[in-house]
């Protein structure tokens, strides 16, 4: 029986034993393998070679030196023909090749279902990511447009306030200017009478008396002009908090997953 440490051909003991016969449990070189497969009794034997060679995995029963022909489903182990009769009698059995093919088919389907499910999940995640990024871009555009429109309203209101203030200013300045002209005109008249009084310094008292009465009469005719009320203009800002700003609010919620109609993937 082949040993794990043996590296030479167990038939000729000369060549490199790089081919393992699963039925004979022996190492063969290239030449001996060719001869072995030409022999009628062993032409159907199977070999393991190269990186797949692992002498720890035997194809023969270590107890009876018989090939493993069956798979005991109840015990989940490979058994030879003798073990099948002595130790696994009445157990649920199947042929080794049949069990391997069945298990391989099941594994292929299971792995395929996992690959398909993962592929769908990745596709859904990628589509969701692109959708999320598109949503964020659209929301940013909406916020920008909304803010721009609100700014236009604010600018329009500011222009209206300034226009109203300028109109009132023009009207009030005209009134103030007219009052100022009237006061200056009155001042000029009073200044003339004051000068006339000074010019009477060398007049005789007989001549001065009617003169002063005449000047007093002129002063009485001048009258007075009250200074108009000066308006005080102020602007009171509204106390607006961040929550009072007329912009919308963001909302984030989970999207409902579309039903795929599939069953349990596990």
* Percent of residues in β-strands: 5-15%
Estimated structural class: mainly alpha
Name the average pLDDT: 83
The Cα radius of gyration reads 58 Å
Distance between the termini: 43 Å
As a percent range, the share of helical residues equals: 40-55%
User: What gross morphology would you assign?
Assistant: rod-shaped
Largest sheet: 3 strands, antiparallel
The low-confidence runs, each spanning 5 or more residues with pLDDT under 50, are 1-6, 261-266
**Series of secondary-structure elements, N-terminal to C-terminal:** EEHEEEHEHH
The largest beta-sheet arranges its strands as 2-1-3
Number of strands: 6
Number of helices: 4
Protein name: B box-type domain-containing protein
GO molecular function, one term: ubiquitin protein ligase activity
InterPro entries: TRIM45/56/19-like, Znf_B-box
Pfam families: zf-B_box
Describe it for me?
- Keywords: Metal-binding, Zinc, Zinc-finger.
- This is B box-type domain-containing protein.
- The structure is a single chain.
- The protein is mainly alpha-helical and 266 residues long.
- It is 52% helix and 7% strand.
- It has helices at residues 30-38, 81-86, 96-199, 205-222, and strands at residues 19-21, 26-28, 47-49, 70-72, 77-79, 93-95.
- Helix 3 runs antiparallel to helix 4.
- The longest helix has 104 residues, at 96-199.
- The chain is rod-shaped, with a radius of gyration of 58 Å.
- Residues 1-6 and 261-266 have low confidence and may be disordered.
Label this structure with key terms.
266 residues, mainly alpha, 30s Ribosomal Protein S18, three-stranded antiparallel sheet, 52% helix, rod-shaped, disordered C terminus, metal-binding, zinc-finger, Znf_B-box, zinc, ubiquitin protein ligase activity
């Amino acid at each position: 029986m082949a040993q794990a440490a043996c590296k030479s051909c167990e038939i000729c003991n000369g060549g490199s034993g790089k081919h393992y016969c699963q039925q004979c449990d022996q190492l063969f070189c290239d030449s001996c393998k060719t001869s072995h497969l030409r022999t009628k009794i062993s032409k159907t034997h199977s070999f393991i070679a190269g990186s797949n060679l692992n002498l720890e995995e035997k194809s023969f029963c270590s107890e009876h030196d018989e090939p493993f022909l069956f798979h005991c489903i109840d015990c989940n182990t490979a058994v030879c023909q003798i073990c099948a009769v002595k130790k696994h009698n009445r157990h649920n059995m199947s042929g080794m090749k049949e069990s391997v093919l069945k298990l391989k088919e099941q594994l292929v389907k299971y792995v395929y279902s996992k690959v398909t499910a993962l592929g769908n999940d990745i596709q859904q995640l990628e589509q969701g990511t692109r959708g999320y990024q598109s949503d964020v871009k659209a929301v940013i555009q909406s916020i920008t447009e909304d803010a721009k429109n609100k700014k236009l309203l604010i600018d329009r209101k500011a222009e209206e306030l300034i226009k109203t203030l300028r109109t009132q200013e023009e009207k009030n300045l005209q009134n103030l200017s007219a009052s100022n002209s009237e006061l200056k005109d009155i001042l000029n008249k009073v200044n003339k009478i004051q000068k006339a009084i000074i010019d009477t310094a060398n007049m005789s008292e007989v001549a001065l008396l009617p003169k002063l009465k005449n000047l007093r009469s002129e002063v009485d005719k001048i009258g007075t002009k009250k200074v108009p009320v000066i308006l005080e203009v102020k602007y009171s800002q509204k106390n607006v908090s961040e929550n009072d700003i007329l912009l919308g609010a963001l909302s984030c919620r989970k999207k409902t997953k579309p039903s795929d109609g599939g069953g349990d993937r596990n």
